[in-house]
């Protein structure tokens, strides 16, 4: 065997092991933020379940003045949503599930950048409502997405914090 063939074989083995090692990474990135907001669950739910209401606390709208939003579907409830296009991406966000005064789940489709879900949980608290906003980003068998999911919590944590602050300010 020549030195060139040995080097090529070594590079191939290294590349294969590198690719396979990504499957040891978590399949889903999960980010959770919580805040107590001085408002009843029904008030917060009404904003969260509405495509127009969501825009009052949309965490991306407060950092991207050129964010384009195009509402679709019913004003509120399952199927209510919007198309978005801005600095941080484009896609759709649709209310996929709603449990009155308790929970709203959004299906987000960003095309090749994935289909994360976000859920806002509302729980009555002595001082108002404990709001838990969580995001899950599945990677499936895509090794690039699995690598990207390592930085998702660092990227999305501040975004969810900003959304909770915006929600508190909206009420």
Helix proportion range: 25-40%
Beta-strand fraction estimate: 25-35%
Return Rg in Å. Answer: 20 Å
Biggest sheet features: 7 strands, antiparallel
Shape: elongated
- Helix/strand class: alpha+beta
The strand line-up of the biggest sheet is 1-7-6-5-4-3-2
Describe the structure.
This protein has 171 residues and is α+β, with helices and mostly antiparallel strands. Helices cover 33% and strands 35% of the residues. The protein contains 5 helices and 7 strands; from the N terminus they run αβααββββββαα. The protein has helices at residues 3-21, 41-48, 51-54, 143-148, 152-170, and strands at residues 28-37, 68-72, 81-86, 89-99, 103-109, 117-125, 128-138. A 7-stranded antiparallel β-sheet has the order 1-7-6-5-4-3-2, with helices on one face. Strand 4 (89-99) and strand 5 (103-109) form a beta hairpin. The longest helix is centred in the first third of the chain and has 19 residues, at 3-21. The radius of gyration is 20 Å and the shape is elongated. The mean pLDDT is 88.
């Amino acid at each position: 065997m020549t030195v060139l063939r040995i080097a090529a074989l070594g590079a191939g083995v290294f590349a294969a092991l590198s690719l396979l090692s990504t499957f040891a990474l978590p399949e889903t990135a999960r980010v959770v933020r919580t805040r107590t907001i001085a408002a009843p669950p029904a008030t917060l739910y009404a904003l969260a379940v509405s495509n127009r209401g969501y825009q009052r606390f949309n965490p991306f709208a407060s950092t991207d003045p050129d964010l384009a939003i195009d509402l679709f579907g019913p004003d509120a409830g399952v199927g209510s949503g919007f198309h978005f296009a801005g600095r941080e991406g484009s896609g759709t966000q649709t209310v996929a599930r709603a449990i009155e005064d308790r929970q709203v789940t959004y299906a987000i489709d960003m095309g090749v950048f994935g289909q994360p879900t976000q859920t806002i949980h509302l729980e009555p608290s002595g001082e108002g409502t404990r709001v838990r906003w969580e995001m899950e980003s599945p990677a499936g068998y895509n090794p690039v997405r699995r690598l990207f999911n390592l930085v998702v919590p660092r990227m999305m944590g501040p975004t969810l914090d900003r959304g909770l602050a915006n929600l508190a300010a909206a009420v």
